[in-house]
Amino acid sequence: MPLSDVEPQLDSADPAAQLIAYLDYYRGVVERKITGLSEEELTTSRLPSGWTPLELLTHLVHMERRWFVWGFLGEQVPQPWGDHAGGDPEAPWQVPDGATAASLLAALHEGGQRTRAVLTTSDLAERGADGGRFAHEPAPTLAWIGFHVLQEYARHAGHLDVARELADGATGE
């Protein structure tokens, strides 16, 4: 899908269509924030918490896959916590060896295609599959998962706004 630099203009009574539009939009915001940063800026933290833009991008790729593929669909995914050091969900974010901004952005959009397919073929009231991410807890509905992932994107896009402004002064969407 083409990236839009304006908030989705879709005004639909279909919540799945709204989720798809906004998730696509925020993936585009993330891409615009990442694109244009030098390798040094991508791998340097300017924040007390210590995360870098490339680490945040890695987190978003894994986060969406954890919720929709491993969580909702119940499919096994390689290294579901691969965005965290040692695969420990409580550990700081890390970038896998060999990952680049380009490869991570491609993975981000591939994950978006998978998410779009889930949201267009499943009922939002359906609960995630038993097993996978939800092996030891009740699985939430697809609607809850979708809105959780949307808030993750919105929050982290705001974080990238700050990181980008500190890196090179770029502001806005």
From TrEMBL:
<protein>
    <submittedName>
        <fullName>Mini-circle protein</fullName>
    </submittedName>
</protein>
<dbReference type="InterPro" id="IPR007061">
    <property type="entry name" value="MST-like"/>
</dbReference>
<dbReference type="InterPro" id="IPR034660">
    <property type="entry name" value="DinB/YfiT-like"/>
</dbReference>
<dbReference type="Pfam" id="PF04978">
    <property type="entry name" value="MST"/>
</dbReference>
